[in-house]
């Protein structure tokens, strides 16, 4: 579908190539145990995951700071679980979470296979809202950093997806026109709507079981990319 149209493919990282939820769960398993926080991991994640999702939305919209995101998502989770914990320990957990998260390297199924397939034929890039200090570590620990020519993050751009500025910066860095570019990501709001606002082609990797929509095609396994490129 896009084979003769695009020269450059832009990927989101978290929830698209890098299996954020799996790596995040392993990180929490480690740091909660090491700090003797006696909550069941599954109970913690059940409460934390939707809270984290909402706080990332607020962060994308510029309504909260990075430090507020890191602290409040944990504070509210423990409050909802009814678990008594000091602010100091929350700060420790927040720092350790960032420190250890990038040491886990699980990718979504078929991620490396698809990158191997694409690399000889397209220029590949990353556009991510993730924190600059750990996104490069994630790419290196999962051994996919060499696939990508440019890695654009929100701290570099000064704005977050879906703001069109970050997509324009990515196009400028890659020296490519939007009609020759494809964005692949998991978030309808941040990746698909953001990329479409500046004229990129889009493909929605539905990692979050979002409902069908009319904006672009939706895939459920990264191997399906091969049928488009």
UniProtKB/TrEMBL annotation:
CDD domains named among the record's database cross-references: HAD_Neu5Ac-Pase_like
Protein name (database record): Putative hydrolase of the HAD superfamily
Coiled-coil positions: none
Gene Ontology molecular function terms on file: 5'-nucleotidase activity
InterPro entries: HAD-like_sf, HAD-SF_hydro_IA, HAD-SF_hydro_IA_YjjG/PynA, HAD_sf, PGP-like_dom2, Pyrimidine_5'-ntase_YjjG
Keyword Hydrolase on entry: yes
UniProt entry keywords in alphabetical sequence: Hydrolase
